[in-house]
C-alpha cells in the first residue's frame, strides 16, 4: 500500500474519533441537566444559603445560556481544567490523577488473567470441536458470561478469603490484594475472549491454505502453530481492543466490591456525595480512553490487514 | 417469514433448552405469584437476624434464611424477581421499539438523516458497558422508573445499529425493488417486505439483550443506584450480603444463584436460537 493511502486511512479514523469524542463530551456535559429539579440545590443540599447557591451556579456557569455553558465546558477540557470538587475543593485533575494508577494496574492484571485463561481454552475448544473438551471449555465460558462481577467478587472472597484464608478480603495492600479483583474482572473477559478465539480459529481452519498445508504433509503442530494461529490472531487482536471498554466499565463495579481505590470507586463515591463535576470528569476519562483505544486498535488492524483499509 | 417460524418451531428440546425453559418458567411463576402470596419482604424478625435455613419456621417462608435485619430471604427473593422482571420488560420494550424504529427509518431513508443517526449511534457506543447508565441513574436519583429510563437510553442503540445495518442490506434485494416498481408505499415495503426479514437477527439481539438488562439492573442496585431501600432487588441483596460473608454467606448465595441461573438460562436460550437461525450476516 502506498504511504499516501495509509495516511488517508489513519487520518479518516482520527477524524471520526474526534467527532465521537465531541459527542461524548456533549452527552457528559448534558448529564448535569438530567438531575431532577435544580442541580445546584441537589448538590448543596437544602440548608445552603442563597448566596452559596448563586456562587456555585455562577462558578459552574449554570447561569449562562446552554451553548455558552458547553463552550466553557469544552474550553476548560482542552486546557485540562476540569474545575474543582464541590466536596474537597481540590482540583479535579489532581483528584483523578491519584486514582489512575490503581485502575490501570487492575485493568492490566485482569487482561493478563483473561489472556492466560482464554487462549488455552479457546484453542483447545477449537481443535477438539464437538468433543468433550470443547463442550467443557464452552460451558465454562457460558458460566463465566452469566456470573456478573458483583457476584463473582463476593464468591471468590467467600472461597479464597473466608474459607481458605489465603488472600485479603479487600483494600489495596501489596500484590496479594490484586489477585482477587484481577481474577474477578479477568474471568469475565476470559469467558468472552475464549469463545471469540475458538470461533476465529474454526474459521481459519476452513481456509484453503490450511488444506494446502495438510496436503503438503506438514505436521499438525506445524499447521496449527504456523498457519492457523497466526492468521486467527488478527481478528482476536481487534476483539481484545474492543473488550478494553468492557474491562473499564467492569472495573467500576469490581473496584466497589474490593474497595479498590481507582477511578471506578471515585465515580461511585462522587455520585454518593453528589459531587457531580467529579462524576462528569470520571465518565469522560473512561469513555475517552475507550474511544482512543478503539481507534488505535482500528488503525493497527488496518495496517496489519490490507483487506480492511482497502475495503 | 415462513423459514423464521419454521426455525422457531423446530427448536429441538435438548437438555439445554429444557433447562432454560424450566428456569425462565420458574422466574415468571415467581413474578406472577407475587399478588397471590402472603409476602412480608420488609418484616423484621429480630431473633432471626443472619439466621440461615430455618426448616422449623412456622411463618412458612423461612427456609432460605434471614438477612442482617432479620428479613426473610425467600420473600425478598420473590420481590427481587419481580423488580428484575419489571425493569427488564420495561427496558426491552422501550429500547426495542425506539431502537428498531430509528434504525429501520434511518437505514431505509439513507442520506443526511442516516448520516446523522450513525454519528449519534457511534457516540452512544463510545460509553463502555453500563457506564452511561451508572452516570444517568446516579444523577437522576434511585428508583425503578429512573433505572428503566437510564438503561433504555443505553440499550436502544444496539437495536438501532442492528436494524439499520439489516435494512441497508435488504433494501437492495430484488423483491424490495420489484415491490417498489409495482408502486408499493414506503410503509408497505417496510412492514411487509423488510421487517419480516430482520426478525431473526433482532430476536437474537433481544435474547442476549434480556440477559444484559437483568445483569445491568442488578449491577445498578448493587451500586445503590437501583431500587430504593427497603425495596428488594437481587443486586441490592447481594450488596447487603457481601458485608456479612463470614457470618451469613447465604445472604449472597441465595440471590446470587437465582441471578446466575436466570442469566445462564437466557444465554443458553440465546445460543440455541442463534445456532438455529444462524444469522452470521447480522454480526
Write the layout of secondary structure elements.
The complex is a heterodimer of chains A (about 300) and B (about 280).
Chain A: H1 3-31, H2 39-44, H3 50-59, H4 66-78, H5 92-127, H6 132-146, H7 149-163, H8 176-205, H9 208-215, H10 220-257, H11 263-272, H12 276-304, H13 306-310
Helix pairs in contact in A: 1-12, 5-6, 5-8, 5-10, 6-8, 7-8, 7-10, 8-10, 9-10, 10-11, 10-12, 11-12
Chain B: H1 2-9, H2 15-33, H3 73-109, H4 111-125, H5 131-140, H6 144-170, H7 174-181, H8 186-222, H9 234-242, H10 250-277
Helix pairs in contact in B: 2-3, 2-10, 3-4, 3-6, 3-8, 3-10, 4-6, 5-6, 6-8, 7-8, 8-9, 8-10, 9-10
Give an overview in words.
The complex is a heterodimer of chains A (311) and B (283). By secondary structure, chain A is mostly helical. Chain A contains 13 helices and no strands. Chain A has helices at 3-31, 39-44, 50-59, 66-78, 92-127, 132-146, 149-163, 176-205, 208-215, 220-257, 263-272, 276-304, 306-310. In chain A, α7 (149-163) packs across α10 (220-257). Chain A is flat and about 85 Å long. The mean pLDDT of chain A is 85. The model of chain B has no long low-confidence stretch (mean pLDDT 84). The longest helix of chain B is centred in the first third of the chain and has 37 residues, at 73-109. With 283 residues, chain B is an all-alpha fold. Chain B starts with a helix and ends in a 6-residue tail after the last helix. The chains are: A mainly alpha (311), B mainly alpha (283).
Distance between the termini of chain A: 13 Å
Beta fraction of chain A: under 5%
Helix/strand/pairing category of chain A = mainly alpha
Q: Structural class from helices and strands of chain B?
A: mainly alpha
Count of β-strands of chain B? 0
Q: Uncertain spans of chain B, ≥5 residues at pLDDT below 50?
A: none
- CA gyration radius of chain B, whole angstroms: 22 Å
Which chain pair has the greatest contact?
Answer: A-B, 53 and 44 residues
**Number of helices, where a helix is a run of at least 4 consecutive DSSP H or I residues of chain A:** 13
**Oligomeric state of the chains in view:** heterodimer
Overall morphology of chain A: flat
H/E element sequence of chain B: HHHHHHHHHH
Order of helices and strands of chain A: HHHHHHHHHHHHH
The proportion of residues forming helix of chain B, as a percent range, comes to 55-70%
Distance between the termini of chain B: 20 Å
Which bin fits the share of residues in helices of chain A? over 70%
Mean pLDDT of chain B: 84
Mean pLDDT of chain A: 85
Amino acid at each position: 500500500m502506498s504511504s499516501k493511502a495509509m495516511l488517508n486511512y489513519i487520518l479518516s479514523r482520527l477524524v471520526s474519533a474526534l467527532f465521537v469524542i465531541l459527542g461524548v463530551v456533549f452527552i457528559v456535559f448534558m448529564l448535569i441537566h438530567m438531575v431532577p429539579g435544580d442541580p445546584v440545590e441537589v448538590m448543596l443540599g437544602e440548608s445552603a444559603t442563597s448566596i452559596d447557591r448563586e456562587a456555585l451556579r455562577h462558578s459552574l456557569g449554570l447561569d449562562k445560556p446552554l451553548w455558552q455553558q458547553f463552550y466553557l465546558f469544552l474550553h476548560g477540557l482542552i486546557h485540562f481544567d476540569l474545575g474543582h470538587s464541590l466536596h474537597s475543593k481540590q482540583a479535579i485533575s489532581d483528584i483523578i490523577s491519584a486514582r489512575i494508577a490503581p485502575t490501570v494496574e487492575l485493568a492490566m492484571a485482569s487482561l493478563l488473567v483473561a489472556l492466560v485463561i482464554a487462549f488455552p481454552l479457546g484453542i483447545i475448544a477449537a481443535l477438539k470441536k464437538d468433543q468433550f473438551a470443547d463442550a467443557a471449555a464452552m460451558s465454562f465460558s457460558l458460566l463465566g458470561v452469566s456470573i456478573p462481577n458483583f457476584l463473582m467478587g463476593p464468591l471468590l472472597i467467600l472461597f479464597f478469603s473466608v474459607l481458605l484464608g489465603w488472600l485479603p478480603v479487600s483494600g489495596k495492600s501489596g500484590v496479594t490484594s490484586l489477585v482477587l479483583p484481577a481474577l474477578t474482572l479477568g474471568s469475565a473477559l476470559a469467558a468472552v475472549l475464549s469463545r471469540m478465539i475458538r470461533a476465529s480459529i474454526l474459521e481459519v481452519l476452513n481456509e484453503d491454505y490450511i488444506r494446502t498445508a495438510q496436503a503438503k504433509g506438514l505436521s499438525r503442530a506445524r499447521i496449527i502453530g504456523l498457519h492457523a494461529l497466526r492468521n486467527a490472531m488478527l481478528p482476536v487482536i481487534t476483539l481484545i481492543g474492543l473488550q478494553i471498554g468492557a474491562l473499564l466499565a467492569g472495573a467500576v463495579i469490581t473496584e466497589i466490591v474490593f474497595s479498590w481505590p481507582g477511578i471506578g470507586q471515585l465515580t461511585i463515591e462522587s455520585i454518593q456525595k453528589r459531587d457531580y463535576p467529579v462524576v462528569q470528569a470520571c465518565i469522560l476519562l473512561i469513555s475517552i480512553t475507550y474511544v482512543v483505544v478503539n481507534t488505535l486498535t482500528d488503525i493497527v488492524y488496518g495496517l496489519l490487514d490490507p483487506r480492511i483499509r482497502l475495503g | 417469514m415462513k423459514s423464521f417460524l419454521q426455525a422457531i418451531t423446530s427448536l429441538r428440546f435438548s437438555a439445554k433448552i429444557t433447562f432454560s425453559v424450566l428456569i425462565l418458567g420458574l422466574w415468571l411463576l415467581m413474578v406472577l405469584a407475587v399478588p397471590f402470596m402472603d409476602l412480608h419482604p420488609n418484616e423484621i424478625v429480630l431473633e432471626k437476624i443472619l439466621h440461615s435455613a430455618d426448616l422449623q419456621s412456622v411463618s412458612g417462608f423461612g427456609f432460605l434464611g434471614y438477612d442482617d435485619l432479620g428479613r426473610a430471604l425467600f420473600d425478598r427473593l420473590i420481590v427481587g424477581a419481580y423488580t428484575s422482571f419489571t425493569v427488564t420488560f420495561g427496558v426491552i420494550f422501550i429500547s426495542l421499539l425506539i431502537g428498531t424504529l430509528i434504525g429501520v427509518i434511518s437505514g431505509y431513508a439513507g442520506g443526511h438523516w442516516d448520516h446523522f443517526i450513525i454519528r449519534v449511534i457511534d457516540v452512544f457506543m463510545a460509553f463502555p458497558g453500563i457506564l452511561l447508565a451508572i452516570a444517568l441513574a446516579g444523577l437522576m436519583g434511585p428508583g425503578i422508573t429512573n433505572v428503566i429510563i437510564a438503561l433504555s437510553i443505553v440499550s436502544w442503540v444496539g437495536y438501532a445499529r442492528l436494524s439499520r445495518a439489516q435494512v441497508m442490506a435488504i433494501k437492495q434485494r430484488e423483491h424490495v425493488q420489484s415491490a417498489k416498481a409495482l408502486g408499493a408505499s414506503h410503509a408497505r415495503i417496510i412492514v411487509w417486505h423488510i421487517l419480516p426479514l430482520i426478525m431473526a437477527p433482532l430476536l437474537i439481539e433481544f435474547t442476549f439483550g434480556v440477559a444484559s438488562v437483568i445483569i445491568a439492573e442488578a449491577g445498578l442496585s448493587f451500586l445503590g443506584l437501583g431500587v430504593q431501600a427497603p425495596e428488594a432487588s437481587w443486586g441490592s441483596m447481594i450488596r447487603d450480603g457481601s458485608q456479612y460473608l463470614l457470618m451469613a454467606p447465604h445472604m449472597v448465595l441465595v440471590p446470587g444463584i437465582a441471578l446466575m441461573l436466570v442469566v445462564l438460562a437466557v444465554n443458553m436460550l440465546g445460543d440455541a436460537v442463534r445456532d438455529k437461525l444462524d444469522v452470521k450476516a447480522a454480526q
